[in-house]
Design brief:
single chain, Butyryl-CoA Dehydrogenase, subunit A, domain 3, mainly alpha, elongated
Length: 498
């Protein structure tokens, strides 16, 4: 089925009662008997039309006074109009018959003039991404809603005709003042993304041209570069602002494909500030201007996640966790988190594992004991002990000791952790006994304020070891666990327990 026929069917599903489809539509492939379309998560199907109150519509898609699509679909309802020919559909095939002398047929020369813009608005035609219709297409915003500024002066228009330019002022009629400048922001953001991609595309093309053809991965790299180049050109010529999130997604794919192509060719990808091109465009394109506030935290799989810090500190991008096709949809899984957080390339362990890092570097804040840094803190980083390319275990961590020490150190991690597990358990029991005795004293209405303070300090000392993990700083762990036990025992004695 041709592009415009598919568009006609999509429009029918959105605007025409189901009976029109079940009866067959003149001008369309005769095999089409039912159609369904999912647009940003909402099913539009024959028989389930949210706009079914519209009867016998005159199709005037994207502002054409009598659209080509309308002529194709409603030929039987509009006597004298004909179904589309190949040239009307933008296929570039010349008419099979010459027109009669004196008959003017513009479509003989003017073929598919708005094809790219139309595809962009519908969210089709690019490579590597599913159909992502413009939000405005879904609510039937036509071209003339945004293109409201006459291009030609009135006198000239009488001779050459009139067309209309888009303006950001058109946004305000529906969205209000907060959308002032939105169109300019869209254009600028897409331009910035393309500026990031341009040197990557040039470098990849140069690498391909300079190859000897012996690399078995050349063909794969060549296809990636070709697809990336197509998407960049499509966004430019199709005017990406007609469907800005679809355009941004196409550029994001182009950016990643060019990096991958360079790696396949044995080259280092061009380094640029590509946060936008990697998928961090949602806030810039819309959220900031529309006044959407980034939440500090969100809950993911029953766990609180520092949402804002992922963007502002960790370098994460919106589409790393959210769908580029469905607004707000979360596509992240636990594997998504691990692929970033626990990749060997991620050396920012301390951004999340703050308690362990503070314990290791002797920066844990407490007045209970003096905490010094681990003796290895100045020389050994997290990933030098935790090899994230392997399954994590005490044995695997122990193997890392051999990079600096002899085999006598192989069992240290195992013995330390087993020993500290026992000490933590004993300290926890001591704190529990003190809490029980304190509870009995309160029920007996005996005041034991000193015991209250001691139990609180014992809990704090135990929590610092549990949070920081004793093996990260054995000396500090010993001191804190000793303090926890002593204070718990003193509280137990004051509360009158045994």
């Amino acid at each position: 089925m041709t592009l415009l026929s598919r568009i006609a069917v999509v429009w029918l599903v959105l605007a025409v009662p189901a009976v029109a489809l079940s009866a067959g539509v003149p001008g369309l492939d005769s095999k089409v008997t039912a159609v369904s379309l999912t647009v940003h998560g909402s099913p539009f199907a024959a028989g389930k039309n949210p706009k079914s109150e519209i009867r016998n519509p005159k199709l005037t898609f994207i502002g054409h006074r009598t659209s080509d699509i309308g002529r194709a679909v409603f030929a039987s309802q509009r006597p004298g109009l004909r179904p589309l020919g190949p040239a009307d559909r933008g296929e570039g095939t010349p008419p099979t018959k010459s027109h009669r002398t004196g008959e003017l047929e513009c479509a003989n020369c003017h073929i598919g003039k708005h094809r790219g813009v139309l595809q962009m608005y519908l969210g089709v035609g690019g490579r590597g991404t599913p159909m992502i219709p413009s939000h405005m297409f879904q609510v039937r915003v036509q071209c003339v809603a945004c293109h409201i500024v006459p291009k030609e002066p009135e006198r000239k228009a009488e001779i050459v005709g009139q067309t209309f330019r888009p303006t950001g002022e058109a946004c305000l009629g529906c969205h209000g003042e907060k959308y002032r400048g939105m169109l300019t922001r869209w254009k600028d953001t897409l331009d910035q993304m393309q500026q990031v991609i341009a040197p990557k595309l040039a470098a990849a093309q140069k690498a391909l041209a300079g190859g000897d053809g012996k690399n078995p991965k050349d063909a794969q790299a060549q296809q990636l570069v070709a697809d990336a180049e197509f998407n960049v050109e499509f966004v430019t010529l199709g005017k990406g602002v007609h469907n800005v999130f679809y355009a941004a997604d196409l550029l994001k794919l182009a950016n990643s494909w060019l990096d991958e192509a360079m790696r396949l060719l044995g080259r280092t990808p061009v380094k640029t500030d590509d946060v936008l091109a990697r998928g961090g465009y949602c806030a810039v394109l819309c959220h900031e201007k529309a006044g959407v506030k980034l939440p500090e935290t969100v809950t993911f799989r029953k766990r609180k996640v520092p949402h804002k810090r992922h963007i502002t500190e960790f370098g994460a991008v919106c589409t790393g966790c959210h769908s580029a096709e469905v607004h707000k949809a979360v596509t992240a899984t636990p594997a998504t988190c691990s692929s970033c957080h626990h990749s060997q390339e991620n050396a920012r362990c301390e951004s999340c594992h703050r308690a362990q890092a503070a314990f290791y570097h002797g920066k844990t804040k407490t007045d209970l004991v003096k905490i010094e840094p681990n003796v290895m803190a100045a020389a050994v980083t997290c990933t030098e002990c935790h090899d994230l390319s392997k399954k994590h275990s005490r044995k695997a961590v122990g193997q890392q000791c051999l990079a600096c020490h002899d085999e006598g150190y192989l069992s240290f991690v195992e013995s330390w952790t087993v020993e500290f597990d026992g000490q933590v358990a004993e300290a926890a029991k001591a704190v529990k006994r003190a809490e029980t005795a304190l509870g009995k004293a309160r029920r007996a209405k005996r005041e034991v304020p000193g015991a209250d303070a001691l139990v609180k300090e014992a809990r704090e000392a135990l929590a610092l070891v549990q949070g920081g993990r004793a093996v990260h700083n054995p000396d500090a762990a010993d001191a804190l666990l000793d303090a926890a036990r002593r204070k718990a025992e003193a509280a137990l004695k004051q509360a009158g327990g045994k």
